[in-house]
Amino acid sequence: MTSTSHARRAGVREYRAHQPATKSPPATATPAESPLRDAVRRGGLDAVARGTGAPLAQAVTTSVVWLDPTLLTRVLDVRRWRRVGRVRSRPFLRLQPPRVAALLQAELRRQARRPGALAICGAIALAQYAVAVVAPSVAGVAQVIGAYLVAGRLASGLRTVAGSPALRRSVGGREIDLRLTHLVAPALGATLWWAITLPAGGGVLPAAMPLLLAGVVAAAYRGATRPPMFYGAGAFDTPLGMFPAGILLQLARGPDVLGVVIVLRVLLKR
Question: Residue 108 CA to chain centroid, in angstroms?
Fold first, then answer.
């Protein structure tokens, strides 16, 4: 009995030795999962890092559904300032009147700490010169639109002050003074950008330039001080469904003045 069992075991071992070695198939992972799992395994990606894009995606969806672009711009502003991080504080110059001078210096420092906005303004200037070369007939209209985009890009402080009653109460002073103080940076930026792109702006009467610039700044001010969306506005029943005319009129606050400036630019073409 013992010799038979030993013989059987020896035969099994000999059979297994002559069998080809089998390799288990390698574990595969999808391209999207593999880097994520590796980063989590190494400790380079935590739950906070994986969820950083969730507020942005939610803001995009909400702004599209509710037709309110301010929901997206607020989230983008918060993300920009988080990338800036900590800054070194410096005392303000003591100028008169003290409240307006302090607010104006703070707004100018805000713009200096956002180099991305200045880079975008430079890109818009290059686009203006490209339009002047490719389609010189519409260079004047493109210059008006570009100045409006630059002013709107530099009006983040004005949008913040206009959209936060609590911030206005904490700062104090008259509301119109706060808004006009935060309008200085967009106005200066639009004027400087207009001067840089003047050779590519097409022919226009020199006396009309201050009027056009004032119209662009007014359009940026009107768009930045847009009140919160009111969804109880009127709508019309059409064969294709309800037409939200009231909501579209609220969205046109700012671009409506820009349209008037564009018409004036076309009429005042030299």
Answer: 19
